[in-house]
Design goal:
- The chain has one domain.
- Helices cover 28% and strands 14% of the residues.
- The chain has helices spanning 38-55, 106-119, 140-157, and strands spanning 34-35, 58-59, 64-65, 79-84, 91-97, 128-133.
- The protein has a four-stranded mixed beta sheet. Strands 2-3 form a two-stranded antiparallel ribbon.
- Helix 2 (106-119) links the parallel strand 5 (91-97) and strand 6 (128-133).
- It is globular, with a radius of gyration of 15 Å.
- The two termini are 17 Å apart.
- InterPro entries: DUF7998.
Length: 178
């Protein structure tokens, strides 16, 4: 499963446990919402790993499923955090904090994440998963604007736009479809 890069299982914290020391702090996109932690975070994150495997959402720098970034002890302030929307409990908010403020994959990874969660929405309890990159990323404004546009199209049509309609194309950098 980790053959895409030089990933070592030794750098990953144990699965099935929520360790706040190996997860990013919730950022501005999650402020004022019901942030998932403990078993709630673990349950949604385990599903995320399955969906990301199915849709090929992989971090090519580290050679693993993007969900494993939350377990990577080398990058304790990177990965996804989640919160149930305070105004609409059928909406989950997901905020991605990359390993660096200039991570070149943040655009592709967040769009791939949006497509995986919302393209396989029958597998979770939310009508919509809103995705944003943390404000610390140098291109957060433009990436988040594109994510809002993608979300708006999805809400208007009930369908994800054609894969060629966004800059991420139809495949992750590993070559698997989002």
């Amino acid at each position: 499963m980790y053959g895409l890069g030089s990933q070592s299982d030794d750098a990953l914290a144990p699965e099935g446990e929520f360790d706040p020391d190996v997860n990013p702090e919730p950022g501005a996109f999650l402020a004022g919402h019901d942030v998932l932690d403990g078993d709630d975070h673990v349950a949604f994150h385990e599903l995320t790993r399955e969906l990301f495997d199915e849709r090929g959402v992989y971090d090519m720098t580290f050679g693993y499923n993007l969900a494993d970034l939350n377990l990577d002890t080398r990058h304790t302030e990177a990965g996804y955090r989640y919160a149930v929307d305070a105004d609409d409990p059928s909406v989950l908010r997901a905020e991605f904090t990359p390993t660096t403020p200039f991570c070149p994959q943040s655009h592709t990874l967040t769009i791939g994440s949006f497509r995986a969660w919302n393209g396989l929405s029958e597998r979770h309890d939310y009508d919509l998963v809103r995705v944003r990159v943390a404000d610390s990323h140098q291109r957060s404004e433009s990436i988040n604007e594109e994510l809002r546009d993608l979300e708006e199209t999805y809400l208007e049509t009930g369908e994800l736009p054609d894969e060629d309609a966004d800059d991420a194309g139809g495949a992750s950098q590993a070559g698997a479809p989002f």
